[in-house]
Structure formats: C-alpha cells, structure tokens
Amino acid sequence: MAVAIRVENLTKKYILRHEGGQKYVALRDVLTGSVKKAIKGEITLPSKEEFYALNNVSFELQQGERVGIIGRNGAGKSTLLKVLSRITEPTSGRISIKGRVASLLEVGTGFHPELTGRENIFLNGSILGMSKREIQSKFDEIVAFAEVERFLDTPVKRYSSGMYVRLAFAVAAHLEPEILIVDEVLAVGDSEFQKKCLGKMQDVSSSGRTVLFVSHNMAAIQNLCDKAIFLKKGEVQTIGGAEEVISTYLKSTAEVQTIDLADRKDRSGNGLIRFQSVELIDENGNAVQSLHCGKKAIIRIHFDRKENAAVNNLHVAIGIDNDMGQRITQMNNEVTDQIFNNVRSNSIDLIVDDLPLKHGLYSFVLYSTVNNEISDWIQNAGSFHVESGDFYHTGKLPPEGQGNVLIKYSFQLK
C-alpha cells in the first residue's frame, strides 16, 4: 500500500513574549507604561518564552487509512492539521504528502465571505485543481448533501455557523481529494448531519482516499477510524489501533482530571469568574468520591469572582459526557429560569434528585457567562464515578450495557 503522508521530526515552535511577568497587557498600558519608564530611565525588555506546539512528531499513514487524532485541548492536534494543510509553516522537520488535500479546520476556512455559496463551490474546486466541468458534475450532489439550496446565491457571510459547516464539509468531501482533513468543526452541526458526515468519510476512505479526523468524541473516532494517534503536549504518546489508543487516552485523562481547576491553563473566557474546584455531595450533605444512581446528588462548583466584586446575570452550565466522550446531557440555570444577580457567593450547587445515570465513569465540561459574555470555560474539567443503585425503587438494579441514562416510566395493559 502506498504511503499518503510521511511526517519526520516535525516541530512547531512559538515565541511567547511577557511584559513584567504579565501574560496579557493592553496596548494603552504598554504605551503609557513605556512613557513613564522612559522618563524614569527604567525601560526593560519583555521576557521571552519558547512554546512547542509540536515537538519532534513522526508518523507514516498509508493510502486509504482512516486516522483519528486525539488528545486534550492544547495537545497540538489543530496545529498538526494546519501544518499538514500548509496553512502554517513548521519550524523544523519534513512532511511528504502524496495527493490533493482538502481541509475543514474551522468555520470560515477556505470560503470567501463576500461570495455566494455557488461561487465558493467553484472557487474551492479550482483551488483543488479541478476543471469547471468536473466541479459541475459534482455540483448537485454537493448542494443536496449540504441542504442549502435556498441560500445558494446568498453571500456565505450571512450563513449561520451550521449552514457554513454543512456547505464547507460537502465541498471538501465531494470534490475528490486524495486526502481529507477534518477538525472538531463538525461539532457545530446537528447530530443527524454529523451522522451523514461520518458516513461520507467512510465512503471517502473506502474509495482509497485517506481521512484524518480530530474529535473529542471517542465513539465517533472508534466508529470511523481504524487507526489513531494520541498527542500530549505536542508529542506523540501512542500510535496504533483506534480502540487501543482510545483506551490509553481515557486512562491518561482520568489521571489528569484530578488537577485542581485553579491551576488549569487550557481554559477560555474573560475571567470575571473562574472555576476553582468541584465537590460531590451526597443526599446527607457529605462530601463523597462517587455518586449513587437513584439517590439525590449535589455537584458543588466553587469559583472566584474578579476583584471579589458582585456578579450580575450569571449563567453556569455543566455538560456531562460518558466514558467515550459522547454528550449525555447539559444542565444550566438559564433553562430552569434561575437567573442569578448580585452574586456575592463563591459557590453554586447543582442539585439532581434521583440521579438518572447508570454505573460508570463520567466526565464533565464547565461553562459560565456573565452578562452574556463567556467568563470561564473548561473542557474535560473533571470526572466522577456513579455507583449502581435502585433507581426504580423496586429492589432491582437496571441491566448493564443498555445506555447511560435512566427514565422513569410504567406500563399499562389495555
């Protein structure tokens, strides 16, 4: 089998500059501070720090392989795809690619916002080296797959993010590239469209073309990919069969998730509040290591307020995933119409009566907004175990292997 991609000792280094030990400094502060220091004769040069997004990465992929790239946020997954797509230049190392590459890395990549959907289809085809006739032969198929026929002659800058992704994926997958590279951007689409995309990527690889797929959804990786690469801090940890690599990754994340949230760097938001830690509380008010199915459960989220100020219009959400990274549910106080204003507390309780989760390991995402602006957002914020319990209060435990969530129900004979 022919080699589609060969990567040898690939390194991507960035230089981070820090002013006076501060990571982020506003332009006005730089200007006014420099003037003051110049008057006092105290000008100092900013410190520099080397950051390796990728460090000595090497691997080889065969033509027709479906390869998943997995790892936590900041592991270097997206940087690797950008280098392979020739969007970013490597610092050192060598890449050999055989065939045309179509990439879908983030919403907006590859489309001209002022052009219509129709015009962007032809533009992307031309970039891939296809003739007008070849693009026309695929045109109807692309439009049908993307489900954007009504908006075909509308500038794509007016598309919703979902429409944008549908059309971008349809173009990338249908214009017959030898190598298809897809980032987590598919998470923007709805579940039905994600299924269509996974099916299409399987079709692409079965026709002898290579697929690289980045996702936090381990079930999607497992279903689509026969091979996987696990990246951690810019370095390759494991390469091998998808199931084996996923197992290694899940064990490593369970270890990492014991880190105090106050020390987490892979977070985003303006910092008006910052999550510090999470406690599990049982029905008796005791801190516990695991929760019980069918019992009252409290997830207590501790946070700091910037300069200890009162916070208004606070929304907090927690998304719960199963051990394969599939989102099971999301809970937030906006849906329950519990809007918190003049918040002076430093913790909030999420209370679940009759916990409907079956026995197993679950991970969670924490997300907050203040006045509709993201304040703190941490992926893979932690994990917890749920022990088996008498959810139906019948003395019988629910059967294993039948999904993660339990529903209260009854039968009636008519």
List keywords for this structure.
33% strand, alpha/beta, 6-stranded mixed β-sheet, 414 residues, globular
Description:
The chain is built from 8 helices and 18 strands. By secondary structure, the protein is of the alpha/beta class. The strands form 4 sheets. Strands 5-6-7-3-8-9 form a 6-stranded mixed beta sheet, sandwiched between helices. Strands 10, 12, 14, 15, 17 and 18 form a 6-stranded mixed beta sheet that branches. Strands 2-1-4 form a 3-stranded antiparallel beta sheet.
Strand content: 25-35%
Average pLDDT confidence is 83
Biggest pleated-sheet summary: 6 strands, mixed
Radius of gyration: 25 Å
Shape: globular
Number of strands: 18
Relative helix content: 10-25%
What's the quick description here?
The protein has helices spanning 27-40, 77-84, 117-127, 132-146, 161-174, 191-206, 218-224, 242-256; strands spanning 3-18, 47-62, 66-70, 92-97, 101-104, 179-182, 210-214, 227-232, 235-241, 267-268, 273-281, 290-292, 297-305, 314-321, 327-332, 347-352, 360-370, 373-387. The protein is α/β, with parallel strands linked by helices and 414 residues long.
